């Protein structure tokens, strides 16, 4: 690595990652609001459906490999291995998306929007591989700048295309073209500087990596499926327009989850180092502080939500949306609980308890599906929040107990091995 590619400090990495993600996801969130202003609640419902379906399939395409790749401190696999595997997983994900669209009772226009948005998410999959290498090299400024360029530009082309064409399908297509251009002229050149070479596509270790990361893919699929299930259930039970209402209310509140990810992602590396070096006290201290910090921040978010949600939603959507104000308060709780689970998932990934993550998140998604259908039929859109709150609280309780057991066993085994030496 050249001098210009020296690692940044943790503070700078967190700062760049947070700013970039904030702008990128903020821009993505604004598209869900502007589609109402420039289109209708029906188009908002279609966009939400396309995002929900493609985000679920994205878990197969991305294969849940990011945390695994960043925490691969022994360099068991090369950057070429990760990129080669991504080609296979991306093709597999898109084929599954096509099959899903064929088997569901979606309109032709809905199918077109879903498939095009899946192209957009597939490009994001390849960016994901590059960003993992940039994080390992301690150059998250590249990640932050890429997010800024992609976020502002995508929002710009979305507004222009929707204003000119008033067609969501064409607009998503324009977003895909822009994202691909950024990938070619910014993302690839930056990672080539870090690697000191261009990617070489090889299938030598791709199969082995696919098998190693299979539990990560399944876990991430289930983990993403859980918050997607309520939207799919609302669309099937209550209709596309009410899905648009629910999605419009929840979109501004997802900033809580985004902010949590901004902070948590850069922390994977130091926590992985503590685990790799058997630094028990440091690992325990850091992980407990992060967990307590998230609880405190969650409480602040809820209080802030009670104060600011009503005026914000009124400004964004008008008085009509205020009829559903009580739903927003419960969504804040759901999003905070979801952020805590994301953190616990990172801990399990560092411990390499991947199949355990599959079981926990798979079981939670089954419970969520049953609970959502039951509660939505009885309580309408609010039933989705009731269902997720029950599922998330139960999952958090189980994961805390299991993680404490894993930590105790890890510490005990390492101390015994040290005494033997």
The gross shape turns out to be globular
Q: Mind summarizing the main beta sheet?
A: none
Radius of gyration: 21 Å
Instruction: Indicate the proportion of strand residues.
Output: under 5%
Q: Could you tell me how far the N terminus lies from the C terminus, measured between alpha carbons in angstroms?
A: 36 Å
Low-confidence stretches: none
Overall average residue pLDDT: 86
Element-level helix/strand string: HHHHHHHHHHHHHHH
Computed structural class: mainly alpha
Q: What proportion of the residues is helical, as a percent range?
A: over 70%
Number of strands: 0
Q: What is the count of helical runs?
A: 15
What's this model, at a glance?
The chain is 86% helix and 0% strand.
Structure notes:
The chain has helices at residues 10-38, 41-62, 66-70, 79-103, 108-136, 140-165, 168-195, 206-212, 214-237, 240-253, 255-276, 280-317, 325-350, 354-379, 382-420. With 421 residues, the chain is mainly alpha-helical. Helix 1 (10-38) packs antiparallel against helix 10 (240-253), helix 2 (41-62) crosses helix 10 and helix 9 (214-237) crosses helix 10 (240-253). It is globular, with a radius of gyration of 21 Å. The two termini are 36 Å apart. The model has no long low-confidence stretch (mean pLDDT 86).
């Amino acid at each position: 690595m050249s001098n210009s590619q020296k690692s940044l400090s943790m503070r700078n990495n967190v700062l760049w990652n947070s700013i970039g993600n904030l702008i990128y996801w903020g821009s993505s969130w604004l598209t869900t609001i502007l589609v109402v202003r420039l289109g209708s609640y029906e188009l908002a419902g279609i966009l939400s459906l396309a995002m929900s379906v493609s985000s679920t399939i994205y878990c197969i395409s991305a294969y849940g490999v990011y945390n695994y790749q960043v925490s691969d401190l022994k360099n068991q696999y090369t950057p070429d291995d990760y990129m080669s595997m991504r080609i296979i997983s991306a093709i597999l994900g898109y084929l599954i998306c096509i099959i899903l669209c064929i088997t569901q009772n979606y309109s032709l226009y809905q199918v077109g929007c879903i498939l095009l948005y899946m192209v957009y998410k597939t490009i994001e999959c390849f960016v994901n591989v590059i960003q993992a290498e940039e994080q390992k090299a301690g150059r998250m400024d590249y990640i932050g700048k890429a997010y800024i360029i992609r976020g502002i530009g995508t929002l710009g082309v979305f507004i222009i295309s929707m204003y000119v064409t008033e067609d969501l399908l064409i607009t998503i297509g324009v977003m895909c073209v822009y994202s691909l251009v950024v990938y070619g002229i910014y993302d690839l050149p930056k990672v080539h500087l870090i690697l000191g070479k261009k990617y070489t596509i090889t299938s030598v270790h791709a199969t082995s990596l696919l098998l190693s990361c299979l539990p990560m893919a399944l876990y991430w699929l289930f983990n993403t499926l859980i918050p997607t299930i309520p939207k799919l259930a609302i669309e099937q039970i209550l209709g596309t327009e009410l899905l648009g209402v629910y999605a419009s209310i929840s979109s501004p509140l997802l900033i809580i989850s985004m902010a949590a990810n901004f902070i948590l992602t850069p922390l994977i590396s130091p926590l992985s180092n503590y685990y790799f070096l058997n630094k028990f006290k440091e690992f325990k201290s850091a992980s407990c502080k992060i967990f307590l910090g998230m609880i405190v921040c969650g409480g602040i978010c809820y209080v802030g939500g009670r104060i600011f949600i009503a005026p914000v939603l009124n400004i964004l959507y008008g008085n009509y949306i205020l009829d559903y104000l009580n739903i927003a308060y419960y969504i804040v709780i759901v999003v905070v609980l979801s952020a805590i689970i994301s953190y616990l998932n990172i801990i399990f990934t560092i411990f390499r308890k991947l199949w355990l993550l599959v079981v926990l998140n798979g079981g939670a998604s089954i419970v969520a599906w049953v609970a959502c259908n039951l509660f939505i039929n009885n309580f309408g859109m609010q039933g989705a929040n009731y269902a997720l709150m029950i599922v998330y609280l139960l999952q958090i309780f189980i994961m805390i107990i299991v993680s404490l057991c894993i930590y105790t066993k890890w510490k005990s085994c390492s101390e015994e091995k040290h005494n033997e030496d």
